[in-house]
Amino acid sequence: MRPPDEAAVSVLARLASLRQHQRHGQRSPHKPLLVLLALGRLAATGSSEVPWTQAEAKLAELIAEFGPPSRTGRAQSAAYPFTRLRADGVWVLDQDVPMDLVGPLARGHVTGRLEAPVESALLARPALIGSAARDLVLSNFPATVAPDVLQAVGLDPRQVLGPGDLLPSAGGVPGERARDPRWRAAVLEAWDRQCAFCGYDGQITGASVGIEAAHVRWFAFGGPDALDNGLALCALHHKLFDLGALGLSLGLQVMVSAKFSARTPAGRAVYELHGYQLAPRPGTAMPAPVHVTWHTRQVFKGEPLAA
Ligand SMILES: [Zn+2]
User: Residue 168's pLDDT is what?
Assistant: First the structure.
């Protein structure tokens, strides 16, 4: 039997309340990542059930790749959403275990799943799985990273986002601030249509190709569509910047995370960006310290390479 529309509405509302666990712009994608993982399993198998023994490694991997820089251990960071998501009314464990502790989860062979009413409402209307996933992923990650997150949890990015939303400037989640349609062009113009980090300036039939306008402080985390919050970056360096492999110092030098590694000359060329001083043409607004600091604290992965 299909549940009434009310059920669908309340499920979406419950999941939407998880959109952002952020206070003062601090990223905490742990719970959204667990919900996305559960939605991926639900879409693939018809059940969101996942034993801790399987969730631990997968969740730790997702948090390490897509989460903010962290000083806690991998298992510890996975235990946090696995136990704490219960408080949000969407997640249950088959045993009562204390919050945050890894030991009891492993010893008790604990299994988690989306709450039964949530799961049945989603199964009755599979399109809701996509809209819930879209909401969660776009409110926690920039458009460069959202498709990777979806793929990592087993959801199809094209189905969830639609082809148009893969473009950095497109679409948003309900309730999101309006984007400034002129921002992208203004940023590219200010940086002479070349990557602020490597100088790449490719064109195809006269139009820039592979150059994007990047937010320093992510739009979803209060970053304005302002020239002092934008950089023109090539597609590769945009992605590495959004994943925290690259960062900026307050002195506006490129930082390469010590966690980044590469073997081939093309990959190792990234190391050479370390210490590069941004040098746009005179008059270009430079990234504001407040946005640079946000990126360093919330995105950049750990310590910069020794200079
Ligand atoms: Zn570049």
Answer: 44
